[in-house]
């Protein structure tokens, strides 16, 4: 991608940065994400469903521009089928933290995970941040292996899960 709003065709879908007009489709995808993978995200389906549309619209508008945070979607032209976000790490100026990575189950294994991560990586580089980091729940071997295939390495750092004290997350990094 050559700009933050550029589109890349990907196996009958497009990976692109979200736009303000995407709020309703982002809300639908967020609810799906939370229902499908409740341990991977920082809120519950009930919390997300209770949020008014205006709040989704404001969040989407905020991440559709700028260098502090961005969200990218896999868009086949109807319902969104994938998402990955990136945010500047507050304590490491050269680092982007990847968050809220998700693919609709029927779309897994088509290369979209790599395309979403690469969209975040390209945005990170344009913003002057040459490194990526993400966290995976310890025991989520499918995600761990997928991120290894994308060049991420386990740093050995383990941190508490932000919502479930009994779980730990492992940190993985790679260059953007």
Automatic annotation (TrEMBL):
**Entry's Pfam families?**
Acetyltransf_1 (PF00583)
Q: Which GO terms describe its molecular function?
A: acyltransferase activity
Q: Where is the N-acetyltransferase domain?
A: 13-176
Tree of life domain: Bacteria
Key word Metal-binding present: no
Q: Does the keyword Transferase apply?
A: yes
Q: Which UniProt keywords apply?
A: Acyltransferase, Transferase
State its Enzyme Commission number(s): 2.3.-.-
Q: Which InterPro entries does the entry link to?
A: Acyl_CoA_acyltransferase, Bact_Acetyltransf, GNAT_dom
- Protein name per Swiss-Prot or TrEMBL: GNAT family N-acetyltransferase
